Amino acid sequence: KTRTAHLDITGMTCANCSGTVGEALESLDGVVEANANFATDEGSVEYDPDVVSLAEIYEAIEDAGYGAVSDT
Ligand code: 9UX
Predict the structure, then answer these.
(1) Is the ipTM of this structure higher than 0.85?
(2) How far is the CA of 18 from the centre of ligand 1 (A)?
(3) Best probe residue, ligand 1, of 10, 14, 18, 61 (max atoms within 8 Å of C-beta)
(4) I want to staple 71 with a disulfide (CB 3.0 to 4.6 A). Which of 4, 8, 45, 61 is the partner?
């Protein structure tokens, strides 16, 4: 069963950044779908918690050059 995490994303400075964040997340095993919105600085990630952890999701965002905090 998947869960969807809602995140506040920092560091997106142009509209294409949201695509970069989404692709970085979707490249992770266990992430079903991910989206980021430049206009609102928010993102959502649907993931399988048996395969990938929220910590790994944050790490992937940071590795891509952005930041994230939980937005529940
Ligand atoms: Mo825009 Mo974002 O040229 O990493 S894609 S700043």
Answers:
(1) yes
(2) 8
(3) 14
(4) 8
